Amino acid sequence: MRFLTKVQDCGTKANMFKAATANLINKFNVQKNVLYFLIEMGLRRASEAFMGEGYIPTHVLTEIHTSEVYQSLNLRAQVVDAIMATDSAAAIQLIDTYYPELLKKNPIIHMKLLLLELGVLIKSRDTTRAIAFCQGPISSLFVSYPECISELQKYTLLMIAPDPFSARNSHLLCQARLNIVARDVSHDIISFYQPDYVFHEIMDLMRLHSYSKLYGDTSYDSNGEAETGV
Predict the structure, then answer these.
(1) Distance CA 63, CA 59 (A)
(2) Do 162 and 193 sit in the same domain of this protein?
(3) Are 18 and 227 in contact (CB under 8 A)?
(4) The CTLH domain covers which part of the protein (predicted)?
(5) pLDDT grade, residue 36 (50/70/90)?
(6) Are residues 80 and 194 both part of a single domain?
(7) Which of 25, 27, 81, 227 is deepest in the core (most CB within 10 A)?
(8) Residue 61 and residue 86 in one domain
């Protein structure tokens, strides 16, 4: 009898856990986190399109619209768009205009942006201009900030490789590299002005989605019992 009671207690606790999870992780919560993820990435058009789908309650949208991270979205999106267009010069100019202290405090960002331009020259097999670019803007940066040279070293093999697309570190020439740098720069801007900001990671969003599929389709009462609607 005691054993059955313990089993029943365990079952009730499990259902109550599911109830708590269902309340915490629901459709709107997942979508809210996805929206924040897009905003943090600096993807303005994607964020606006997602908000326009009508999945998120008005009070949540109001909260998001008044958040500091959302209010910086338009400026960050301009920087992200320049990066995705492989226009490093425009991205650097925008950052200097809107966030004048950022590149001085975080020269690695500056180097990553310059290296995107170097990647364009490597892909076009323009070795002469690539070398000149290394001796010019890139060289002057790592002379002032030696820690940046580690980023440049990743590209050196690509410059001398007969086929840079099959060489080690060839992933640095892929389109995905633009996405990574754009995300990093957008996140760095947020972190610089909001040091305590907690980002919404994609793996966490995937877990939220999985949990919502497990627990979000069933309603539970205050005792942790499934509600059948009967």
Answers:
(1) 6
(2) yes
(3) no
(4) 72-129
(5) very high
(6) yes
(7) 25
(8) no
Structure tokens, 94? 């925008």
Bridge partners (DSSP) listed for residue 220: 226
Half-sphere exposure of 141 (CA within 13 A, CB side): 24
List pLDDT tens digits, range 119-139: 999 888 888 898 898 888 888
DSSP annotation of 220: B
168: containing domain: 74-198
Q: Do 115 and 185 reside in the same domain of the chain?
A: yes
Residue 18 resides in a domain: no
- Other Cβ atoms within 10 Å of 189 Cβ, number: 24
What Å distances lie between residue 142 and 119, 128, 135, 165, CA to CA? 17, 20, 10, 26
Assess whether 45 and 153 both reside in one domain: no
Q: How many other C-beta atoms are found inside a 10 Å radius of the C-beta of residue 224?
A: 16
Whether 22 has a pLDDT exceeding 70, the answer reads no
Domain membership flag for residue 141: yes
Find the DSSP H helices in the chain.
2-24, 27-41, 44-52, 58-65, 68-71, 73-84, 88-98, 102-105, 107-123, 127-133, 139-144, 149-160, 175-193, 202-215
Q: What is the arithmetic mean of pLDDT over 46-57?
A: 86
Partners of 226 in beta bridges: 220
